[in-house]
Amino acid sequence: MNIITKNLIRLCSSLLFFTVGSLAYAGPGHDHGEEKTAVHSTIKKPKFYMESELYEVVGTIDGKNIVIFIDDYLTNRKVSEAELTLNVDDQAIKLVKAVNDTYQGNLSSPVGKKSLSITLSVKDKDVDDILITTYDPTDHDVLKIFRWWYWSLWLISSMTLIAMLFIGFREKQRLITAYKKLINFIKERK
């Protein structure tokens, strides 16, 4: 047997070993307790972020609905008793406290694809603060880095490189002979 056949047999046997070995069967009595429901966050909403020396704010826009989470910049504690007023392109929105220490408000019309200037006024006890950001919904394409052409190009390039390495290894002796002939030809030209 030549070396390629041996390596092919080794590769197939190791693939078979790892494939069969990974098929585990949990029989009766094999229990880890109550099955927990998985938490999936499949809905990706456009987000905006604001920060100042006092607060950090993360907000999402879903059509006309705006949800904001605000916390203390230094301690990361939730800010739950503040008065928040949001200005979105000269439209003032009084935010009301909602579940999970978030604040919600409604726009008069959906955002669409236009860029917005967002200003948040915070009044918490005796502290006032203003946070400002620009929201651009075109920058929040969730699948921007997962384009099919990028991955297919990467896959084709990898397969081409593997094929070239395989052919080069298989035809090593012919390539070395051709390389020596080329070097001799260049030396003879001088």
From TrEMBL:
Ranges that cross the membrane: 148-169
Entry keyword set: Membrane, Signal, Transmembrane, Transmembrane helix
Signal peptide: 1-26
The name this protein goes by in its record: Uncharacterized protein
Biological source species: Polynucleobacter cosmopolitanus
